[in-house]
Amino acid sequence: MRSIIVTGGTGFIGSHTCLLLLNNGFKLYIIDSEVNSSKNVLGQLSEILNFDSEEFRKKIVFFKGDIRNKNIIENVFETSKEKNEKIEAVFHFAGLKSVRESNILPIKYWDNNVIGTMNLLKTMDKYDCKTLIFSSSATIYEPVKNRKLNEKDKLGPINIYGQTKLVIEDILQGIFNSSPEKWKIANLRYFNPIGAHKSGKIGEDPIGDADNIFPIIIDVANRKLEFLKIFGNNWGTPDGTCIRDYIHIMDLAEGHIAAFKFLLGNKPQIVNLNLGTGKGHSVLELVKTFQLANNIKVPYEFTARREGDTEYLVADNSLAISLLNWIPKFTLYDMCKDGWNWGKIKTKF
Ligand code: NAD
Ligand code: UD1
Predict the structure, then answer these.
(1) What is the pLDDT of residues 83-103, one digit of tens each?
(2) Buried-most residue among 157, 191, 223, 233 (CB within 10 A)?
(3) Nearest protein CA to atom 33 of ligand 1, as residue
């Protein structure tokens, strides 16, 4: 059976991508430490796909473990080898992602994100698995105002989290340069994924307090938080609030499948791709659309700007569109609708 390793596969982006990979017939070896997710999500995937228990066992193998422990990754490769199932590629989602925390605990972030990735790469090399889809971030770009970012734009992350992502991209470039005839690598630079699969059975479910806006909106809509703090209404944008490129999680997940197909069908290369919709929406627009789509109130107050925020962050996604035969389909309204479909049920688990 065609097999893939997915690190961080029970997390937000990982779980939605796993769903599509399973739908495409792949067997998955998922490694996750459950530091920010739970393996319960695998049962949900199985429900969406109508898997019986035998199919579940055949298609999803879960390893609870930290990729900083090389034995775990070796164990996964060995297990697949014993079954004569060569790992075709690794989808590497495992990482810590809070900008705020990364600036307070830099060692934790360098250790988790970079050392974890180094272990993975060493083991991939050892087992001659040289196709990698890496979760990078738009945060690696030097901030610009009122212009979409393209892949050739200057890089210059202003936080530790972003620096770990940039260092990993640099490491990957060096590895590619050392044997360009072998490696196939896609650095996918995500903009702002939100929403959930339309079934409402999976979605973003962080452990502890969320930092990103969408899970906070869900918490406010569920009355777990009294109101949303909107960080600043004095930015140089039409309504004074920051603009982001929100992308439906299923469009982002489809982008991974498209990037994988692209790598498989082309000569070895390393490619950097922005995954966003190319459309900017302000925080106020997001909140108002959420209220309209779901007929629910999301009280908000304006507060001071958040340190490290940028006014405008929107993708020039033309490269991804032209190379991948991929195009984001969903609107902000869809993201809000599907996200709440998950968010309102989540509280019942
Ligand atoms: P997430 O926290 O939901 O998923 C990450 C998963 O990795 C979690 O399940 C977590 O338990 C696991 N994990 C973390 N460190 C690990 C380790 N050392 N070993 C094994 N498992 C580990 O986050 P997400 O939103 O799904 O993000 C996935 C990836 O995409 C991350 O690398 C993140 O930095 C990157 N990214 C996310 C966004 C976003 O807005 N969500 C934007 C840009 C980039
Ligand atoms: C943040 C990170 C980014 C990371 C991404 C995904 C910062 C500065 N950037 O991006 O590096 O890749 O998450 O993990 O942290 N907002 C509010 N109130 C809130 C939360 C957010 O008004 O309670 C606003 C923010 O000011 C921003 C927008 O909502 O304008 C989106 O915020 P967020 O979801 O945190 O994403 P980014 O800031 O784009």
Answers:
(1) 999 999 999 999 999 988 999
(2) 191
(3) 97
